[in-house]
Batch of 2 targets.
Target 1
Amino acid sequence: MVTLGILITCSMLVIISDVRVAVVGYVAFTAMIIVLLAHHESGATAITLLALIAFAKLLVGPAALVFVTLRYRLPWNLLPSANLPLRIVTVVAMAFIAHAIGRMDAFAPIHQASIVFFALFASVATVVLHRSLLAHIMGLLMLGGAITLAGASFAPSLPGAVELADTFDIIMTTFVALGVVRALLAHDPRVTITALRDLRG
Amino acid sequence: MTLLLIAAILAPILTALFAALFSNQSFRRILRVVLSIVCVALAVSVVPQLDHLSAIFMLLVSVLSALATIFSAGIFPGTDDGRTFVWSSRPTYFILIGMFWSSMLLAVTSTSFIGIWIGISSTTIATTFLVGFSGAKASLEAAWKYLMLCSFGLAFALLGLLLVGRAAIEAGLLPNLALSWSALAVHAQALNPSLMRAGLLLMLVGFGTKAGLVPMHAWLPDAHSKAPAPVSALLSGLLVSCALYALIRTQAVAAQSAPQLFNTTMLVIGGLTILVAAMLMLAQSDMKRLLSYSTIEHAGLVAIALGIATPLASVAALLHILNHAFVKSAAFLSVGLVQHEQGSTTIARWHGLWHARSGRLFLLSLIGLAGLPPLGLFLSELLIIFAAVNAHAWLALAIALTGLLLAFAALARCAIETESGTQTASAMKTSRLAMFAASGAAIGAIVIALLPLFGVR
């Protein structure tokens, strides 16, 4: 059930273009990962780490994104760079590729390997298929979620330091990215990738 | 980790914060210079606690970061007369430099891959702001590309670490040793080969992104060329070296579990990197961009040496990283001096640099980067060529030689164009402190070049 939920929310994040729906999708996606993670954890330290991760990923990241959108009156549109059918085809192709990778020798014994790779591909696709820099930040946040999921699936007995490090990195990166977005507002009020194509060669 | 080591790692960021407490700019400048030297002294004091490779990189990071800090404190004295660069008078700049420095120290002193990953990831946070510090559109574009590409690259490295960690735990290693590079290197042969292959390749992609290896290099020329000169020196001289350090540690594990796959991939990526970078060097009109592509070219050469994987090639790779770090730092710092005097980094606008001290220093660094004596890149490139001949890696040798020749042509053209002719008059006076720091990097390069002559191993 949770796997299906992750599949749907990841697909949604690649396909939709409204910031509000994307934030809701991201929160749902992350909440499901936290639920999965909670099944593996026991003991006070692990639960504390999980609470920290949940706080950072479910509250701090999305709240910062919404705050910046409201504060600087950014458009609520993630500006897709491909049309809807192409985005849907991309999601279907990603699902097939992730399924194929999950059946490879290295990953076959790993529980939920396919869904980890699907989440990873979805985070990359969210960046590639949208022009708004907010979508790119959303992609980064999704990537953090995918890595946390990978931590729970690939190496559940590794110390929680991996998840914590990743959470810290993603949250810091989100704030750094929002800082750059704020500085870019002076040059492009819509903060799109189209304004960032001067450096070439 | 001992208390002294923790103090040495945290000292750069803490001293930068401490210096920011004082409002008098002249005092702050002197304090920064003194505290940088204290940080180097602390780093030297912990060297006996580290293994040889970590010790070498700790010294490298400390000395060059201190020189970049002294240069930053010196070149722009803080009087805003319309042409001075105001960024270095802002404490935030030095706090970010301190954070960058501490992050690199963490990466090179950690005994676990997760520590290396955290250190290298943390550099992204500080350096994104440093690259975009001027607030100009091009700098922000460079900062954005850097942040996005490196974040994704490092996420792949972390995924690789998770796979390696799983293989280690499956083989019975204790969870807290599962990501220790020394434990992994010892037990690598007993680990699940499929998982190790996938994990090591993902780590190669991740750390390779930070090292600027093709095809993950797109961020590097933009970020290194749009950052302030001392930051460019740190990015090219140190950050790339730290990423290569991570690859050396990864290779030590790969040598026991998947040597053929890892080394072949290194050779392919290294060959591609050196060719692409050397060809693009010929097409550059901006000095800092040219030097950035030169960094990619040298990273490619190190990757080829690591791919050859003989003891001679490994020594050559390490020597090349050290030489390149000093020479490239000297090059970027001298470009900073010339930029301060000339107000531009466009090659076509630089003439008669030979007549100024900064221009002569710049020429020395160009000679070094071109692989000519007396600087050490001559020796390390020669050793890489010998290693390729000894290993019968003829294709790698041909690619390396082609790349080196193309890079030499690009640098020679640049040297002739910029050093000859009459110098444009400059109203700007070069700071002695900045000149000292840039010269320090060049002297360091000469000292490293001379070490093998005195039998230092």
Target 2
Amino acid sequence: MTDSRRIMVKVNGVDYERLVEPRQLRVDFLRDDLELIGTHFGCEHGICGSCTVLFNGRAVRSCLMFAVQADGADILTVEGLADGKQLHPLQVAFREKHGLQCGFCTPGMLMTAYEFLNENSNPSEEEVRKNMSGVLCRCTGYKQVVDSVMEAAQQMRNK
Amino acid sequence: MKPCAFEYFNPQSVQEAIALLDRYGDEAKIIAGGQSLVPMMNFRLARPEILIDITGIKKLEYIKTEGDELVIGALARERDIEQSPLVVEKWPILSKAISFIGHSAIRNRGTIGGSLVHADPSAEIPTSLCALNGNVKVVGPSGEKILQPEEFFMTYLTTSLEPSDLLVEVRIPALPEKTGWSFGELSRRSGDFAIVAVGILLFTETTGVCREARISMGGVAPTPVRAEEAEALLAGQKITEKLIAEAAQQAAEETDTEPDYHASAEYRMEMARVFVKRGLQEACNMLNGGQ
């Protein structure tokens, strides 16, 4: 056991101050310490993408960072996407276009698509496919995931 | 699994980081983007007792030119280099090579210095550094040194860095105006490690005649390698389909492959031939006004 360190971190607009052990992974900090269990923990080595969150505005694997490295950071998780009871257009599109079945990969899909659409509001289907290939889904075969992201992009452009 | 316990330091300067390395030596490991190290720690293949997080050294994040050289700080993120207008315009092969690394979320964290010191022989940044004749600046307790790729990459996952050395900068010379290039790789799935990666640069002065050729291959030897004899076949010659086929065959013979879980030695060698051939055709088409 090594000395814990105090970190200050903003998650979904809320400030937290916590003591963390250096070896604690970011994803475990979010799930166990902050009880934000929307971020899912899959492969534990950066391949599956389920644990993707936004870290200072950029999509990152939260299993490949330590909580202690989040000191001073601004994090957005899937819990922060909706505006109160109003779902984010991505969430609406995933529901309408059946972009999920079991839902395990969905937080990673949503956060990956969120960053992608922020950078590219009018993507081609091929660009969506390439970008979403970084998150593994073993249910949908990706057709509905791609449809959902395309639909969300259109809804967000129409706003 | 979860990583073993370690003590964490986050130095704010290069001097502070080197002092920590000097104090802890082999017990310490540097973490930058962590995209190779943390998976190894999660599997407990790496068990550093001391972790020195250098991401606080913000002044190592630059991407700029000095004279006509491209100069990149060790902590520049792969995604920032890939999208840098400067790199896209003047060193497009580097941007293209980086686009093959993992996925965007990995490139958002991974750094140029981290990829180089990890020294995976199939990795894109080491392979393109060899094609670009780039070098790395290393700082240690006794001062600075500049290392060429062949002095830096020793074997699988091994560089010539001493335990107290820190890679701080990457320098890449300017490319001539008339440059044709390509970067391609074979992987099982999008974002996987390359089975074979090939970077090509062709320089010309007279249309259709190659002044100099560079062929860098990743994944086919313990380090990224240049196919020097194949390059010599092309230098000063008019490039024809026949010559491209001969050079590709020669490049394949310059590989030093071993079979592993992903591919047999013969398959890697054959894919090196295929990717060198395609890469030369692509670079040649670019020079001939195809792009």
